[in-house]
Design goal:
Layout lengths: L8 H13 L24 E2 L8 E8 L2 E11 L2 E4 L18 E5 L12 E9 L13 E5 L9 E2 L13 E6 L15 E7 L2 H8 L11 E6 L14 E6 L2 E10 L11 E5 H9 L14 E3 L7 E5 L10 E9 L3 E5 L2 E3 L8 E10 L2 E11 L2
Parallel strand pairs: 8-13
Antiparallel strand pairs: 1-10, 2-3, 2-5, 3-4, 4-7, 5-6, 6-7, 9-10, 9-12, 10-11, 11-14, 12-13, 13-14, 15-16, 16-19, 17-18, 17-20, 20-21
Length: about 375
């Protein structure tokens, strides 16, 4: 849940999300091997027990030769709520395969998880309006292969608007790094206290390094005095308030400042109330997946034809796929369709193919590819 300044917007936001997921160098109950590198708790904060946060879920998944970790929340026996960027592979496109995941519930120390605590994942989904370019709508779910006995955490709804007011004390828990430069994750669960901030404050304070903050879809908090806050590996975890006997989840950890809690910048969360009805619907219609990488083929010269393709992409029944060609900049629409014949006026410009897929669950941008016309 961090960004890296000095790179392009897309690279910066991709790094923000992927770093938020945190790479690991531990095998999950001997099942997932990871390469060395930056690894996946709370900066500052305190050591916590699973009895304090019984609905928490530890998530780990293989990606290539490595692995990443996130935090999630059990919201029904087979559903774990987490961040969309913990589900969708922003670097490669498409979803991380469900078979690559393992989830642990009912335990504070993942390394000590036993077979009864470990769950395979049958399905993964992100919400229809997830914007991977701006990380808005950063919420997704994992459908477990069998029910977890962990108690479901209640989700905030429209009637809980007062809980989102500035000054509300909240709690954050997870398994992320305890220091931005730490080489190893903590051995056990940690938590910290934070305070909800006004939407205008959130937008103003995040604007210098993130211009996409949306009060309609996001919320933010500041740490209480001292260096505490979320870090790599806390992504997808719950921001909650209420009492131990009646906790309620307000947000899903999405991202924060460059130095985790040490920089005193706001931590940003997907607003759970915005997704509650959709999450709890018995048969929600999921938006199409971004399961492919867009390519543009052909000679990029005037008079020649470019073809837009998404190799290996197989949209589900009921999904409409659209191809639109635009000039960059300023994104003027040139034509619709899989192919485009280049014109003299295109010389010196970059021509891009935008591929979108849509169904009753909403539209998604599958991807973009471009060529410079000579």
């Amino acid at each position: 849940m961090t960004t890296r300044r000095g790179t392009s917007r897309w690279a910066r936001l991709s790094a923000l999300a992927l770093a938020g997921a945190a790479l690991l160098a531990l095998g999950f109950a001997g099942s997932v091997q990871a390469e060395d590198g930056a690894r996946a708790s709370i900066i500052g904060g305190r050591s916590s027990t699973i009895e304090e946060f019984p609905s928490l879920a530890y998530i780990e998944a293989r990606v290539g030769k490595g692995a990443f970790a996130c935090t999630g929340t059990v919201i029904s026996p087979r559903i774990v709520l987490t961040a969309a960027h913990c589900v969708e592979d922003l670097e490669r496109g498409g979803f991380t395969p469900s078979a690559n995941y393992l989830v642990a519930t009912g335990i504070a120390a993942p390394r000590k998880a036993q077979a009864g605590n470990i769950f395979h994942v049958a399905e993964t989904h992100v919400f229809p309006d997830f914007d991977p370019g701006g990380l808005r709508g950063d919420a997704g779910i994992l459908v477990l292969a069998r029910p977890s006995p962990a108690p479901p955490l209640a989700l905030a709804g429209a009637a809980d608007a007062p809980l989102y007011e500035s000054g509300t004390p909240v709690q954050l828990a997870g398994w992320g790094l305890t220091d931005e430069n730490a080489a190893e994750p903590p051995a056990s669960l940690r938590s910290t206290s934070m305070v909800v901030q006004e939407p205008d404050f959130c937008k103003r304070k995040t604007h210098p390094y993130y211009s996409f903050y949306s009060p309609a879809a996001q919320m933010c908090t500041l740490d209480k005095p001292g260096d505490s806050g979320g870090c790599f590996g806390d992504s997808g975890g719950p921001l909650w308030t209420g009492t131990p006997d009646a906790p309620i989840q307000l947000g899903v950890v999405s991202w924060g400042g460059d130095r985790c809690g040490a920089d005193h910048l706001p931590s940003v969360f997907a607003d759970v109330a915005r997704y509650r009805d959709f999450i709890l619907a018995p048969n929600p219609t999921w938006a199409p997946t971004r399961a492919g990488k867009v390519t543009v083929e052909g000679s990029a010269r005037s008079g020649h034809v470019l073809a837009c393709r998404v190799p290996g992409y197989k949209p589900q029944p009921g999904t409409a796929v659209a191809y639109r060609w635009k000039a960059l900049p300023p994104r003027n629409v040139l034509a619709d369709g899989r192919t485009y014949k280049l014109r003299r006026a295109d010389r010196g410009h970059r021509v891009a193919c935008f591929v979108t897929a849509s169904n009753d669950g909403g539209p998604v941008l599958v991807g973009v590819a471009s060529r410079l016309v000579r």
